[in-house]
User: Fold this.
Amino acid sequence: MNMPNMKEARVRTKDKHKIIKDDYIVLNKNIGVGKKYNVITYGCQMNVHDSENIKAILEDMGYSYVDSIDEADLIVVNTCAIRENAHNKVSGMLGRIKHLKQTKKDLITIFCGCMAQEEGYVKNLVAKYRWIDIIVGTHNFHKIPIYLDNLYKTKLNQVEVYSIEGDVYENIPVKRDSKYKAWVNIMYGCDKFCSYCIVPYTRGKQRSRDYHDILKEVNDLVNQGYLEVTLLGQNVNAYGKDLDIDYDMANLLEDVAKTNIKRVRFITSHPWDFTDKMIDVIAKYDNIMPYIHLPLQSGSNKVLKDMNRRYTKEEYTTLFYKIKSKVKNVAISTDIIVGFPTESEEDFLETLNLVKELKYDLAYTFIFSKREATRAYDMKDDTSLIEKKKRLARLNEVVNENAYLNNLAYLDKVIDVLIEDVSDKDGYLMGYSDTMKLVNVKADLSYLGKIVKVRITSIKTWSLDGEVVEC
Ligand code: SAH
Ligand code: SF4
Ligand code: F3S
Assistant:
């Protein structure tokens, strides 16, 4: 048994990570034959992509996918630790699974993802949720076949969580959710240690993949017919800084753009590492989508400093306008936290005013949530939750107004949309524009998986409606 340890997870040494290509082994390919699995995923795109790996790993052992947890013989819960409400959702799901287990004694539960890296939470799980068969962390989920094998042989629960800085594991299989767009990890972990954030503890140190491996993956995806790739990392602009090579995010973006992939996206950009060279590459290539997620977090310099964000409101604003002026028709979205422990009403007003000024296309807004082991955990906080909720509502009002006004500019325009699925709206398909607008398109199924020209016929705050004008 290996339990998580938050103190160890905080450690950063000068040691370089290793790129390991032969650590994924399945000794028993028949363990899952005749059995069904389901994976429940919470959290960010990285977790969504990890789940795509986990699905392929289980299928490698003979398991077959089933849509509902009620029919599954094995359930994976891939968790997120970013805020308390992420925890609450997982706790609710565990309640449901416990109930299922009462009538299905052989049901196997695997608990993984960022919550599996949290010391306090896992201690509680091990003590009180003894029916969870396997707890595995973010650094070693590719070893699920070994833990399942051990579980069957010994009938003992497996708890294997490592709080190490981490390495890069290649050659882990993947079963992608989409046939048209793919997630491609370019780096793992984070060394920024924003004072509110648990990610540097749950995902380890920043470690970039070798760019040859990334480019090979993109080229393979092109050959398989994929139209879009999203390059993933907590902090993609810092790509390559941890490798001893003269090759950075601008080089990588350019090389990915030069493949035959139709659309390139990337998330998430930290304002700190966003170089002019990157902006120039984004502006130069038509297949790099004009959409940038640029988390602001706060519009107050005092709060930004307390958050350890490493930029001022003025530096952020300069970068924002530089991107707007150089990248044609760019859409910019952001993340904002309200109610950080040191945020006063005046600080909040600075955020509100900046959001009014920058008129984001979209903003994801959150109330600060205290996370285990982070620096902000112990900060004095005398703002009530009611007051924080009020600030969130005031902010959201401006965010929604901006989103609507930005969408209004699309009315009657013809834009490119990659049609990826059927829409919830009857008779419509759905997809995203270059600028990441969700578009419901009146069209038949023959348009699935195509990039089509769509005329926008009506708009809402969070989506656009349109009709196909040509293919
Ligand atoms: N790596 C990304 C962020 C990943 S987490 C970046 O640096 O931009 C996604 C968002 O969750 C963050 O941008 C932040 O706005 C929010 N978040 C992170 N920790 C939080 C916390 N403790 N409470 C509330 N929101 C938080
Ligand atoms: Fe968290 Fe900051 Fe790292 Fe983003 S950059 S993952 S907010 S520590
Ligand atoms: Fe959540 Fe972990 Fe992603 S905490 S946001 S799943 S990196």
Observations:
- The pocket of iron/sulfur cluster (ligand 2) is lined by residues 190, 192-194, 197, 199-200, 234-235, 270 (CB under 6 Å).
- The chain has three domains: 6-160, 168-408, 414-468.
